[in-house]
Design a protein that fits this description.
Layout lengths: L2 E4 L10 E4 L5 E4 L1 E4 L2 E2 L4 H5 L7 E7 L5 E6 L5 E5 L4 E5 L13 E5 L5 E5 L2 E5 L4 E5 L10 E4 L13 E3 L5 E5 L15 E5 L6 E6 L6 E4 L6 E5 L12 E6 L10 E2 L3 E2 L11 H6 L6 E3 L5 E6 L13 E5 L12 E8 L2 E9 L3 E2 L4 E2 L3 E6 L5 E5 L5 E6 L16 H8 L23 E2 L7 E2 L15 E3 L7 E8 L8 E10 L4 E2 L8 E3 L2 E5 L21 E10 L11 H8 L3 E11 L8
Parallel strand pairs: 5-30, 35-43
Antiparallel strand pairs: 1-4, 2-3, 6-33, 7-8, 8-9, 9-10, 11-12, 12-13, 13-14, 15-16, 16-17, 17-18, 19-20, 20-21, 21-24, 22-23, 25-26, 26-27, 27-28, 29-30, 31-32, 32-33, 34-36, 36-39, 37-38, 37-42, 38-41, 40-41, 42-43
């Protein structure tokens, strides 16, 4: 057992830290490190675990070492990933006695194997940077692993990707942050990604999520919920672990805002954005739980073997703290829902902390519902999979399928698709007959764009110029691709509040929410989900796509926050357009560039 006091921000062994930045912030923080020692998971210690009345806990399997994520096939086969061993194991309970039959079978080997999902008799596996799929064979083993994506972001502090299929049939993949608190250079970090099952198309579904390993869809509403890891070194009681309702296009505060709207003292947003502005763009948590408890896998209970009151609630494994004096986590918690909305978080299975909190027998990670409705929990410390079953007499839920409706996710994804180009929409109808010409030294009208402007190469924005319009107070740019499928048109760039005296932009505009040169230009959310320019990336072999750089002269600056989507921008532009023009460039990719 070791307890160390660290000065957060200064990394000096003193009793407090004084974190300072250019806005005058001065905060004293006491940070603790305490890692309870691991002891064996003996039968006596397992018997001492505490669950609600009527529940029984037993070891489903033992000796699995670094057991991490669990996925259960429709036939009851149990798959578990082992990150440190770099493999996936298959376990079966054919006789239904609540314990795995014999030794596990290794069915896949991949370094860093972690997240698992099963759909249409296929197993999906994600490592740090790769996404794979394999057919599930009749004996439960796997066919050849085929790579669907090999370019997930570098991991840094949070390498543990998790995946799940939404009710809309799309694959959702979590990407943690590379750090405790920083401005990420890769917009896919600290996000949840939405991916087609073939891996060919993906977008950023939501951002500002430091490390949302556990997530799932509430079965009554079909809405996505997840638990995010809080920032370290803010003291024993901060940052609480966050339960968020996660919606398309929203950002959830990290790294500058946390919890219900608290300001993180050390970080500084880019582009001279204030923390109050960042807070205004952030969605606060719905519920908080004990700081540093470390939420892991989440599962909504849709079975019929637990009492009826549990149906539609969520369970989350809490791996356990290291960044506080008194340990938190080391448990399974229950998230109570009513009318499809989260109401409270409470302990469900405890006792993994032993000897008064000085030692532990498990660090809970994986969590899944077995075919018989029991819960299976993987411990990555002693390598035990625990089974939590109900043996009491309370009334059970009806044994009818409980499937989350697809509507909410489909409706979110469909927003802004299958609409006309911005230039011909009612919102951009010009008030006068002024002319606006758009040109570029980078490519001719209807000409081929250089590869460096595409996401297959440098991905920088081309130089753009336009003619002055009398009375204009600002200019806006909307770049769209009407040839993209299935999202028509695909938004590649949104920029507005370009000063009236600025009539051109150079190559390579910064991809950040606010520009400091030209001063005050704001940028919005592309269809990819990132902010700033996102270059052409048509499918390899497609005929050339047409990229419409549309420029609008406006009679005012717009009161639209950074990160806004195209529909929000267009609504604000309505009635303010003095003139408009466009320049079209073409781009095709004949061969996929080498990695």
């Amino acid at each position: 057992m070791k307890r160390t006091l660290i000065a957060a921000g200064m990394l000096a062994l003193t009793g407090a830290a004084m974190a300072q930045q250019g806005d005058g912030t001065r905060v004293a923080l006491a940070a603790n490190i305490f890692k309870p020692a691991k002891v064996d998971a003996t039968p006596e210690r397992i018997a001492a675990l505490k669950a609600p009345a009527g529940f029984k806990v037993n070891a489903f399997a033992t000796g699995l070492k670094n057991a991490r994520v669990i996925a259960v096939a429709p036939n009851g086969d149990v798959y578990v990933s082992r990150r440190d061993q770099g493999d996936v194991l298959l376990l079966r309970d054919a006789n239904g006695d609540g314990m795995a039959d014999g030794a596990p079978v290794t069915v896949a080997m991949r370094p860093g194997a972690h997240g698992l999902a099963i759909r249409d008799n296929k197993l999906y596996l994600v490592t740090v940077k790769e996404l794979f799929v394999a057919d599930i064979l009749a004996d439960g083993r796997l066919g050849e692993l085929k790579m669907l994506a090999g370019d997930l972001p570098d991991s840094g502090q949070h390498p543990n990707r998790t995946i799940a299929f939404g009710p809309d049939g799309m694959l959702y993949l979590t990407v943690g942050s590379t750090c405790n608190d920083c401005n990420e250079s890769n917009p896919e970090n600290a996000t949840i990604l939405r991916i087609t099952p073939d891996g060919k198309q993906r977008s950023i579904f939501a951002s500002g999520l430091r490390n949302t390993i556990g997530f799932g869809w509430q079965p009554q509403t079909g809405e996505l919920w997840g638990m995010d890891h809080g920032i370290d070194f803010l003291g024993d009681t901060q940052q609480m672990e966050e339960l968020n309702k996660i919606e398309l296009g929203k950002q959830y505060g990290w790294p500058h805002v946390y919890g219900a709207g608290d300001i993180y003292p050390q970080s500084t947003p880019v582009g001279d954005i204030t923390k109050q502005e960042w807070k205004a763009r952030s969605t606060p948590m719905v519920l908080g739980y004990n700081a540093h408890a470390a939420p892991m896998q989440m599962v909504f209970y849709t079975g019929a073997s637990f009492p009826a009151e549990f149906r539609g609630d969520a369970f989350v494994t809490m791996r356990g703290s290291w960044n506080r004096m008194e340990p938190s986590g080391y448990e399974i918690v229950r998230v109570r829902f009513a009318d499809g909305q989260a109401r409270s978080i409470e302990p469900f299975l405890t006792g993994f902390l032993t000897d008064g909190g000085k030692t532990h027998i498990a660090r809970p990670v994986g969590l899944a519902m077995a075919r018989d409705g029991a819960l299976l929990m993987a411990d990555d410390a002693n390598g035990v999979i625990y089974r939590v079953a109900y043996t009491g007499n309370a009334a059970k839920a009806a044994a009818t399928p409980m499937m989350a409706p697809a509507g909410p996710m489909q409706q979110q994804a469909a927003k802004g698709t299958n609409v006309p180009l911005a230039l011909v929409r009612a919102e951009t109808e010009a008030k006068g007959k002024a002319k606006l010409d758009v040109s570029s030294p980078s490519f001719a009208a209807n000409g081929v764009m250089n590869m460096k402007y595409s996401e297959y190469a440098d991905g920088i924005s081309p130089a753009l110029a336009w003619s002055a319009v009398e009375g204009a107070q600002s200019y806006a740019i909307i770049m769209e691709d009407p040839d993209a499928k299935p999202a028509l048109p695909f938004v590649h760039w949104l920029a507005w509040n370009i000063p009236a005296n600025v009539l051109k932009l150079p190559d390579g505009v910064q991809e950040q929410p606010r520009l400091t040169e030209p001063e005050g230009v704001l940028q919005g959310r592309t269809t990819r989900g990132s902010i700033g320019y996102y270059g052409p990336r048509p499918p390899v072999g497609d005929p050339a796509h047409h990229y419409h750089f549309q420029v609008f002269a406006l009679d005012s600056k717009l009161d639209v926050p950074f990160g806004a989507d195209r529909d929000t921008l267009l609504a604000a532009m309505k009635g303010h357009v003095l003139a408009k023009g466009k320049l079209v460039g073409r781009y095709a990719q004949a061969q996929k560039p080498p990695k």
